[in-house]
């Protein structure tokens, strides 16, 4: 009977490839979205309405924001790219909020409860409404397959940009300023 065995180096090589592939996937997941990823579709579609119980005891309802530019961000406290983009969102809300910009954050947490998310928001100086999502809002927006995911909703209530992955103030500010000019 013939028997065949692989040399020892083949198994080590295969294991090494798996490790390298995993590291590449991890690094790619934490990179900011490229301009190609932030172009969105050609045709704007209506943004589905939703209500979110916010951690400050209020309720955020998208339809109540009609006429304003809304940035809907799905994030989590355990998500490193989410943590990196929040300071940019805080800055944009500070700079453009009085012109009709409203950020809203939907925390999709694995295990953190309202107290942990509130403590995180305080630590990060989040200055816009946030609430814990149960997945139903994410489903209305086509499902969230990774975090962060951001949707920019124009003053007329249509999705103007879908941004999978992390974004930055430099990348999103020109779009927000253009949409705010449309309000006038």
What's the arrangement of secondary structure elements?
Elements: H1 8-29, E1 45-46, E2 51-53, E3 59-61, E4 69-75, H2 80-96, E5 101-107, H3 114-123, E6 130-132, H4 136-140, E7 149-153, E8 158-164, H5 169-183
Structure description:
The chain is α/β, with parallel strands linked by helices. The protein has one domain: Glutaredoxin (3-Layer(aba) Sandwich). The chain contains five helices and eight strands. The strands form two sheets. It has a six-stranded mixed β-sheet with strand order 1-8-7-4-5-6. Helix 3 links the parallel strand 5 and strand 6 (130-132). The longest helix is centred in the N-terminal third of the chain and has 22 residues, at 8-29. The termini are far apart.
What is this entry, summarized?
With 184 residues, this protein is α/β, with parallel strands linked by helices. It has helices at 8-29, 80-96, 114-123, 136-140, 169-183; strands at residues 45-46, 51-53, 59-61, 69-75, 101-107, 130-132, 149-153, 158-164.
How would you describe this structure in keywords?
alpha/beta, redox-active center, AhpC/TSA, antioxidant activity, single chain, 8 strands, 184 residues
- State the order of secondary-structure elements, H for helix, E for strand: HEEEEHEHEHEEH
Helix content: 25-40%
CATH architecture: 3-Layer(aba) Sandwich
Which of globular, elongated, flat, extended, rod-shaped describes the shape? Answer: globular
Strand order of the largest sheet: 1-8-7-4-5-6
Supply Rg.
20 Å
Mean pLDDT: 86
Would you report the number of β strands? 8
Q: CATH superfamily name? A: Glutaredoxin
Question: How much of the sequence is in beta strands?
Answer: 15-25%
Q: Predict the CATH topology.
A: Glutaredoxin
Distance between the termini: 83 Å
Low-confidence stretches: 20-42
Domain count: 1
Main sheet attributes: strand count, strand direction, barrel closure? 6 strands, mixed
In DSSP terms (H or I, runs of 4 or more residues), the helix count works out at 5
Class from secondary-structure proportions:
alpha/beta
CATH class: Alpha Beta
């Amino acid at each position: 009977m013939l028997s065949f065995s692989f040399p020892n180096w083949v198994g080590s090589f295969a294991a090494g490839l798996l490790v390298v592939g995993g590291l590449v996937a991890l690094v790619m997941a934490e990179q900011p979205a490229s301009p190609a990823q932030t172009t969105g579709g050609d045709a704007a579609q209506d943004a589905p309405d939703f209500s979110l119980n916010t951690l400050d005891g209020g309720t955020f309802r998208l339809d109540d924001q009609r006429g304003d530019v809304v940035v809907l961000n799905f994030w989590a406290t355990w998500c490193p790219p989410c943590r990196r983009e929040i300071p940019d969102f805080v800055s944009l809300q500070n700079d453009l909020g009085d012109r009709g910009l409203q950020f809203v954050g939907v925390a999709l947490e694995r295990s953190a409860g309202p107290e942990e998310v509130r403590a995180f928001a305080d630590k990060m100086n989040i200055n816009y409404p946030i609430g814990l999502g149960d997945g139903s809002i994410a489903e209305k927006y086509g499902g969230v397959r990774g975090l962060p995911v951001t949707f920019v909703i124009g003053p007329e209530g249509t999705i103007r940009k879908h941004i999978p992955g992390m974004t930055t103030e430099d990348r999103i500010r020109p779009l927000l300023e253009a949409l705010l000019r449309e309000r006038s």
